[in-house]
Structure formats: structure tokens, C-alpha cells
UniProtKB/TrEMBL annotation:
Its main location: membrane. NCBIfam families: cydB. It holds the Pfam family Cyt_bd_oxida_II. The lineage of its organism: Bacteria, Pseudomonadati, Bacteroidota, Bacteroidia, Marinilabiliales. The chain crosses the membrane at residues 12-31, 61-81, 87-104, 125-148, 168-189, 210-230, 250-275, 287-313, 333-354. It is found in: Cell membrane. GO terms for cellular component: cytochrome complex; plasma membrane. This is Cytochrome bd-I ubiquinol oxidase subunit 2 apoprotein. The keyword Electron transport applies. It comes from the Bacteria. It comes from Thermophagus xiamenensis. One of its GO terms (biological process) is aerobic electron transport chain. Keywords: Cell membrane, Electron transport, Heme, Iron, Membrane, Metal-binding, Transmembrane, Transmembrane helix, Transport.
Length: 377
């Protein structure tokens, strides 16, 4: 089946898979967002324990998706993996260290003999939530704004900045998406709490905090998108593979790929609808609108970054070193073998959906924690 596909078709197929994983990862960042709100929505140790246990049911999904996202990128587009992970070293190491803090915190927060106290691990969870969501947004933004690297004819990479990825923080356009993702993660975290926890006091605080986080997210994301559609993009000449700057490239990508445009507009509607239902109707189902909307928005952004003859990882110092899905991918044989493995993805997704439904069969309450019915974090 996959053997008959051209190399380009396989490259496009795997970019779609990368886009799916990227969308899923950003949606699951509600765990990180919720971790930054433990003290705003929980005013007593009992309430904070309730919030952390609600997140503790899902944190492994985010961690696993992050690892899968990185692994899929490594296998399908190894030149990107070696360039970004090898060049923007400190950005990725800080991000990964933050996720190590998360795993340690859920494991040891309430373990007997904990000499550091619960608050120490709650601080670690906040650090993970802040750095994890913000830095991920910065890295994704660099798919459009570019990074400082060169690649030789032998695919030897040279990162031109001594800051090894930290310099991405000095780009204002990157910062808008980093901050937008931070506030989006917090918004999703609040919607998840509202859907999962049955506690009147926490519900009141969620309504208040949602205003403080949803509005900044919408403003920052709007700024990022408008800026993106108006800026020059890194286009690829399909005849000779040369890369050049094209005005309004990402705007044209949306127009020339109408299905992606429809998905993006649907994403915006779903995100706003979920937030509005929670704010104005006090609904607990907002996460089931804003969550899929988030997935579709990120999925669409990845598609306009890599499809329609676009360089998905631009170089600001040597434009011809920019990476495309054509020059950064694995061989036809490798992509073919991996494509058969990818057929297992729907079964994995079905398992995640089943376990999610089983875990969230009923809302979490203080009584359930005190009775010992739930696993205690």
C-alpha cells in the first residue's frame, strides 16, 4: 500500500501526522496550565490537593505525547531533529528539565518521608506549567520566524548564536505566541477543572480566573495571527528547490488551501464558543469545545508552516539552509516502514479516549479523596 506512494506523498503524510501530534500536545497542555493556577483556584490545602489530583489523572498523557511528538519528528524528519535539538540546545534542555520536575512532583508530593513539604513540589508544578507552555509556544513560533543556523552540503549543522536557542526569546513575534500559549493552557486548565471537579467554591473562582486568562489569550493570539498573515514567509520554488522570501506567504497558504482555512475558522469558533459557554452560561462542557478548537488551530498552523511549498524551519542567516518537508525527511524506505506502524495510531487514540472516559466517569470531590477511592497525589 505505502510502497506505491511517491516520496513526496509520504513526506506529506508524515507532516500531517506531526501536525496531529502537535495539536494533541498543545491541547493536553491544560495540565501545565492548571498547575499554574493551583493557588488561585484552591485556597486551602484540601482544595489544592483536589486540584492536583484532578490534573494527576492526566499528566502522563501530556508527557507521553511530548515524547511521541519528538520521536516522530526524529524518525520522519531527522534533519530538523538534529538541527533544532542540537542547535537550540538550551531551549530544549530547559523545557525537558521542566517536565522532569513535573514527574518528580506528582511522584513525591504526598509520599511518606517527604522532607521538602508539599509546597516545594507544588512550586515545581508551577515552574513546569509556566516554562512548559511558554517555551513550547516560542519553539513553535520559530517555525515561522526562523532560527540562526546553517547547513552544509553534507548536512553538517552550525548554530550561529552562542545562546543556543535562548535568543528565540528576543523575538517579539515569538513572545506573542509563547504568552498566548501560556494563557491558553491556563484557560484550558480552568475549563478542565470546571468539567472534572464538583466543588462550589472552586467553581466560583474558576469563573473569575477565566476572565483573567481567556481575554489575554484571545488578544495575544489575534496579534500573532494578524502579524503572521502580514509578514514575509519562506517559500520554496518547486522547480529547483530554491528558497526565497515571499510577501504574505502564510496568508496565501490559507487562501490556496481552502480546507485548511475552513479548519482554522472552525477552530476559532469552537475556542470562543467553549469559553463563552463557561463564562456566560456557567457550563461545565466548555472544554469539549475549546479543546477540539485548540487541536484544530494548532493542526492548521502546522499545515500552513509545512505545506504549499513552504519551508517549515527557516534559517535567518542562510535562507538556502532552511528546512522543508522535502529536504529534511527520511528516505522513502524509512517513511514507508514507519507508515505501516502509524496504522496503530487510531487504536492508541481509541485507548486514550476509553481510559479518559473511564477516569472521568464521575466528577472528583473532596469526599472521594478522603474515602481513598482515588489514587492520591
Amino acid at each position: 500500500m505505502f510502497e506505491s506512494l511517491s516520496h513526496l506523498a509520504l513526506q506529506q503524510y508524515w507532516w500531517v501526522i506531526i501536525s496531529v501530534l502537535g495539536g494533541a500536545l498543545v491541547f493536553l497542555m491544560f495540565v501545565q496550565g492548571g498547575q499554574t493556577l493551583i493557588y488561585q483556584t484552591g485556597k486551602t490545602p484540601e482544595e489544592r490537593t483536589l486540584l492536583i489530583n484532578a490534573l494527576g489523572r492526566k499528566w502522563e498523557f501530556t508527557f507521553t505525547t511530548l515524547v511521541t511528538f519528538g520521536g516522530a519528528f526524529f524518525a520522519s524528519f531527522p534533519l530538523f531533529y538534529s538541527t533544532s535539538f542540537g542547535g537550540a540546545y538550551w531551549a530544549w534542555m530547559i523545557l525537558l528539565f521542566a517536565f522532569i520536575l513535573q514527574a518528580v512532583s506528582y511522584e513525591f508530593r504526598n509520599r511518606k518521608g517527604n522532607v521538602f513539604g508539599a509546597r516545594t513540589y507544588e512550586t515545581f508544578l508551577f515552574i513546569n506549567g509556566l516554562i512548559g507552555s511558554f517555551l513550547l509556544g516560542i519553539v513553535v513560533a520559530s517555525f515561522f520566524t526562523g532560527s540562526s543556523f546553517t547547513i552544509s552540503e553534507m548536512n553538517e549543522m552550525q548554530w550561529e548564536s552562542p545562546l543556543r536557542g535562548i535568543e528565540l526569546l528576543f523575538n517579539v513575534h515569538n513572545l506573542t505566541l509563547g504568552l498566548a500559549l501560556f494563557f491558553l493552557a491556563r484557560t484550558l486548565g480552568l475549563l478542565y477543572f470546571r468539567n472534572t471537579i464538583d466543588d462550589k467554591n472552586i467553581a466560583v473562582r474558576i469563573q473569575k480566573q477565566l476572565w483573567y486568562n481567556a481575554i489575554p489569550f484571545l488578544i495575544l493570539f489575534l496579534i500573532f495571527v494578524i502579524w503572521l498573515l502580514l509578514r514575509e514567509g519562506y517559500a520554496v520554488n518547486p522547480e529547483n528547490g530554491n528558497i526565497y522570501l515571499q510577501p504574505y506567504k502564510y496568508f496565501y497558504n490559507l487562501i490556496e488551501m481552502p480546507l485548511v482555512l475552513i479548519l482554522f475558522l472552525a477552530a476559532v469558533v469552537l475556542v470562543i464558543l467553549g469559553i463563552a459557554k463557561t463564562l456566560f452560561k456557567n457550563s461545565s462542557s466548555g472544554i469539549w469545545y475549546t479543546g477540539p478548537g485548540t487541536f484544530l488551530a494548532v493542526f492548521s498552523l502546522f499545515l500552513i508552516a509545512g505545506f504549499n511549498n513552504t519551508a517549515f524551519y527557516p534559517s535567518k542567516v542562510d535562507i538556502q539552509s532552511s528546512l522543508t518537508i522535502m529536504n529534511a525527511s527520511s528516505s522513502h524506505f524509512t517513511l514507508t516502514v514507519m507508515s505501516y506502524v502509524s496504522l496503530l495510531v487510531p487504536f492508541v487514540a481509541a485507548y486514550i479516549w476509553y481510559t479518559w472516559r473511564a477516569i472521568n466517569k464521575k466528577k472528583l470531590t473532596k469526599d472521594e479523596l478522603s474515602s481513598g477511592e482515588a489514587h492520591f497525589y
